[in-house]
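Much of what follows relies on a compact textual record of a protein's fold. Each token is a code from a learned vocabulary of local backbone shapes. The record below shows the convention in full.
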Amino acid sequence: LTFDISVTEDPNAPPCENEEEVIDKVTLTFTPAGGGTPVVAVASDPDGPGPLDIAVGEIRLDESTEYDLSIKVENTIEGEDITEEILEEAADHLFLFGFTEGLFSSPAGDGNIDNRGDQINYRDEDINGLPLGLSSAWLTACGEADASGTFRLVLKHQPDGQKTTTSGIAVGGTDLDLSWPLRVLEDPN
């Protein structure tokens, strides 16, 4: 038996549901607030679309240092900067963060993935005054030895009023969910 198959868009679905966004590169840039060399961590798909997952590089930050984090999201296959789309649709997007407790003194705790009420130092917001997360502030903890753990980044798509002051990881679709190994290095001085 032979069947003809056709795939059509759902006319009742929100516009985002009929689009498939390919994200194959995410760049985190931690810039020391007091000046200095930025720390860049890249997650990218080493072979383009296919069976291999996105590979992440380690993040190495200095202890007791304030950093401004900026995030760039790309589809390098089509030469598309998805960051621009996220900015244009800021009211529909939210970055959530999770990290090993003790790596940062601000924000304290382990992030806001499990509880949106946990503080993150967002530096940007949408037209409704809700956080976005392409820009945020971080202060690494001070310790006696190098500390290590993970830094997780989740990009949620929460269209049509789903994004609220309390909406979290269970609301909307997940566009991105990546974890980087992170080390906070003791100041040698």
